[in-house]
Task: structure prediction
Amino acid sequence: MRIDLHTHSTASDGTDTPAELVRNAAAAGLDVVALTDHDTTRGYAEAIAALPEGLTLVTGAELSCRIDGVGLHMLAYLFDPEEPELAAERELVRDDRVPRARAMVGKLQELGVPVTWEQVARIAGDGSVGRPHVAEALVELGVVPDVSGAFTPEWLADGGRAYVEKHELDPFDAIRLVKAAGGVTVFAHPLAVKRGEVVPESAIARLAEAGLDGIEVDHMDHDEATRARLRGLAKELGLLATGSSDYHGTRKTCRLGDFTTDPEIYGEITRRATGAFPVPGTGGPA
Result:
């Protein structure tokens, strides 16, 4: 089985619609794909309606969190999307995205970049606007060569010149809320140092004590040594070790299935979940 547990659609900051994403996942030879848009479940219905036969969809979300001043992302799988407390927190994060993006545009303008809110809104379309959309505007303007080039201290990285904070969950609250909604939590790309400051391993241990289920080990932003280090940490802390592409369509260079999760780990995730269940494809429209 080929299992990719971290992808994004146009419901947040990917370039594939949810329907396109599941069709592309099947074409890439995946057996299981998780839709984990940022702080939203809006893509679920479209993805399920288009789900090809032979592909299983894991519903999820990537929750924006912050601990001790450091941002982190928490993958939440197979939770009840209607659970009111978790839904309210996701809404708070989403509601903060537009004013935050507008503020980043303002900072960039002060730095002499001729970016406009209209440009960023056009790029975001119907998705939940975020830094990747602002980054793509910088690419369009020729300020940076690619989206990754915008995530530096000079521009949009945490603490960067044009960075603006947003409403984010405390990760301990995120774990509690996802668990209460019957879901499973995995810390996304925990040592992706190229993205900015990362949380110390001591914090990962505290999250494990609080009920964190796993950490994303195999990821494009982890080199081989980092993956080995994280695999050892997962074993030490009793955490599941997952692998994922973090696919964003054409917005990033990674491809569906570039990194995958062991079937036994996937099986354990599904065993722990009670809020929702994987959806088997029955043959969506071509």
